[in-house]
Amino acid sequence: MSASRERKKRMVESEQAAPQQAKKTKKKLSEGWIFAIIVILIPVIVFGVIFGVQASWRNATVVSVGDHKVSTTEFNYFYRGALNSIYSTYGSYISLLGIDTSTPLDEQSYAGSDEYDTWADFLADSAKTSAVDAYTVYDKAVEAGFSLSDDDKASIDNEINTLKTYAGVYSMDLDEYIEAMFGKGCNEKNYRHYLEVSKLHDAYIESLTYTEDERNARYEQDTTEFDTVTYYSYAVKASDFETKSDSSTDSTEATTSTEPSEEAIAAAREAANAMVSDFKTDDENVSVMTERSKSEVTSSISEDAANWLYTEAKPGEAKLFEKDNTFYVLQLTSINDNNYQTVNALQLYIAKDASDKEYKDGEKTSDERVSELEAALKEDSSEEKFREYIKTYADNTSSYTITNGAHRSITPEVARTWLFDSSRKAGDTKEFVDDNGGTYVFFFQDFAETYRDLLVTNKLKTEWYDEVTSAATYTYDADAAKHANLGLTIASIYGSSSSSN
Length: 501
Prior knowledge:
The protein has about 500 residues and is α+β, with helices and mostly antiparallel strands. The chain has 18 helices and eleven strands. The protein has helices spanning about 5-25, 30-60, 70-90, 120-145, 150-170, 175-180, 190-205, 210-220, 250-255, 260-275, 295-300, 305-310, 365-380, 385-395, 415-420, 450-470, 480, 490-495; strands spanning about 60-65, 70, 230-235, 285-290, 320-325, 325-335, 340-350, 400-405, 430-435, 440-450, 475. Mean pLDDT is about 85; it is low at about 1-25, about 45-55, about 245-250 and about 250-255.
């Protein structure tokens, strides 16, 4: 090879090698830089994975019904609804269920059955049922072309606006506040959707109507489901007939024993049998039980007592029944078919202040509120204004109720007489004072359906609801549900009044 060709070859090889060497130099990093990058990247990767896992669980489907998929986030709303339901029933006495109000619900064993491990599991199952039922009825409503009224939409807006107000108190925006209340991922958009589904569910059931023939047919199917009975009840406990022994040993045994003695049981039964033979309505142990349903009699005494009153007893006839060492003698007065008119009315109540009540600065007494209300009614007694008066004057401890389809059990009795007077007309108002000095004010709206029709209609709605929801097909992922906000404490939501055990 010539010298010139040899030089060219070396030049080419050198040009080809140079870039490769340059690339290697650019890739090379000091050990310090490598360590720094690792320190930065590891937590980014770890937290990224955690965030991704949490986000995936928030979007996981807990309940699937029809075309609807309830995510872990939305499930939080149904779970809180289940908790609200149980708390509204028991309130500050919820600890009687064995719940420690200051301990997370997912850390408390459920003793009601072996089906659930914790109270959170029980409530999650209730939330699942609520979600299935809500969307099942929601679909029926949509299928029927039913939609929310303007009032229903306004009530949803009012609830959202109330949350905005509370959020402002804590210097939070609405989404932050809703997330703090219900759980990760909860915000105004999905909470509003939950409210719309729930409201449509309720409104559609309320809208169901039935013809007179349908109501009559259901009533005749079993009249005892809708009739009520009025009767006298004589009740004595065997424990009331215990006699204290002079022996200290016997006395101790009598005090600690949970069961009455045979002698006491025999004495109570003898007194009850004497009442069967000669029923005295003025006896101190006799009470008048007015318009009691069959289910009420069954739960308070027994099914045998209810069946006897409804199917066998004659007015004036008495019979003995026993339950838990208590002896009941019942005397039927009448069976009522409840085929009487009901009324629609608004009720406002102002409780009489206690004599030793201490007033805060600017706080008005109950008498002052009553006086102001009376003056306001003279000025304007329209229904719109009366609803405003309810919000303004009704006290917090004895809140008002709106009485729709009110029946004859409404109190006080003088108000009942006034409401059911055939001369009543829309817009009439009347004030009454109860035995405790509290003031009722009623606003008469109109006469409504008969009480029997009201009972039958409610029964038909219940049967429709049970049929529709029991036929629903759904899937439930219990593992996904556990990633909802189940670790709540009663006290943190409802306050210290619920934390007493």
